[in-house]
Amino acid sequence: MERIYPTEPLMHSTQPIRYDPAFEVPEPDEAETTAAIVDTLRAISRKTFEDGGHGLRSVHAKSHGLLRGELVVGDLPPALAQGIFARPGRHPAVLRLSTTPGDLLDDSVSTPRGAALKVLGVTGPQLSGEAGDTTQDFVLVDSPAFLSANAKAFLRGLKLVAATADRGPGLKKVLSAVLRGAERVVERLGGESGTLKGLGGHPETHILGETFYSQAPVRYGDHVAKVALSPRSPWLRALAGAALDVNGKPDGLREAVLAFFAEHPLSEWDLQVQLNTGLDDMPIEDASVLWPVSLSPYTTVATLAVPGQVAWSAARSEVVDDGMAFSPWHGLEAHRPLGSIMRVRHAAYAASAAQRAHQNGRSLCEPRSLDNFPD
Ligand code: HEM
Which residues line ligand 1 (CB under 6 A)? Predict the structure, then answer.
């Protein structure tokens, strides 16, 4: 088995802190906050379903790549050999690339991007309590810190933007607008609604050049970490910040991903973790704080290998977009999501997935193999 070395040596003298459940301190009215966020999500999905007749995710509705790959875990030093990375191994994996809106917008509206990774065949006590589940998800976006400190601050932004949105198409853009910080602009404008018109604003770049981050922390076995997925192959790295003209191409991002995997027989990403070395600089409950890489660099713990393939198809969309759900809460207790934003995501992802499953008359379950994954 290949040995995977950290991308940067662990030079800093500070050791990773040991995980303690007491690191989490729920907000007093967290249940009410969660219920209000879930209500908004439900309203968004109801609206898209009324308009399009198909159940979609309340955010990250549009997929641009639905890829089959393999996660390769090497022999790691003890601090990094935790959870699903405890032993060397190879796991089938699915990578879903998306953009934030809860609606299937033209790609000329350029928005932040997401990457959801589902790793199969993992063992250990599951957060779901379902003994039969053997998956671990990592749900990531293309910037390293979340916009709001906690669920309450996130809800404040959501309400502010929702109050300025019209009841029609605007509503569907509310959550994704908040997820990209539109509430700050609304605040600056004194509550004017102009911002929602400009949902775009992300640079028009190739999605395969992005590095994706968990933004909020997870338990990392004995420790605590944030997670990132970063291009490793030179041909992926070459796409970082590379301009992509999607004007006049409603599905331009998807077309670019299809063309890329038609050309490249094998592409690799590094799955990396940033271990927490001290709560003062690296808080758990405030997801808006960037953990300094000068104190703890992101280090590689596994490689995601993705062969050349037809990277998106209607058949794959039915299996992954409609038949699967990705959530930070699908996985091992050893990778328990931590902090306010992570806790509120528990109910939010479950509600969105249940609603679209119901709308589409399907049941969702965690895959045990990719034997029937369409080619
Ligand atoms: C309070 C904060 C958040 C809320 C309420 C929220 C809510 C949601 C919901 C409801 C979905 C759709 C779930 C489904 O139907 O399966 C979703 C998907 C997604 N979210 Fe979040 N989210 C939040 C924060 C984040 C953060 C911090 C990240 C990453 C750093 C993230 C990345 C994603 C991605 C990539 C998807 C698409 C998953 C897929 O491909 O199925 N979200 N989010």
Answer: 37, 41, 57-60, 96, 98, 114, 116, 139-141, 146, 151, 154, 213-216, 325-326, 341, 344-345, 348-349, 352-353, 356
Comparison of pLDDT for 357 and 103, the residue scoring more: 357
- Rounded CA-CA distance 112/332 in Å is 28
Q: What is the pLDDT of residue 182?
A: 57
Residue nearest to atom 4 of ligand 1 (CA): 345
* Dist. CA 352–CA 56, nearest whole Å: 8
Of 68-82, 132-146, 154-168, 222-236, the range with the lowest mean pLDDT is 154-168
370 domain residue, yes or no: no
CATH number at residue 83: 2.40.180.10
Mutate to test the pocket of ligand 1, among 39, 44, 138, 139 (most ligand atoms within 8 A of CB): 139
> Residue 169 belongs to what domain range?
21-359
Would you say residue 9 lies in a domain? no
Dist CA 152 CA 286 (whole Å) = 11
pTM of the model: 0.91
pLDDT for residue 158:
78
Q: Per the structure, how many domains does the chain have?
A: 1
Distance separating alpha carbons of residues 128 and 275, to the nearest angstrom: 25
SS3 373: coil
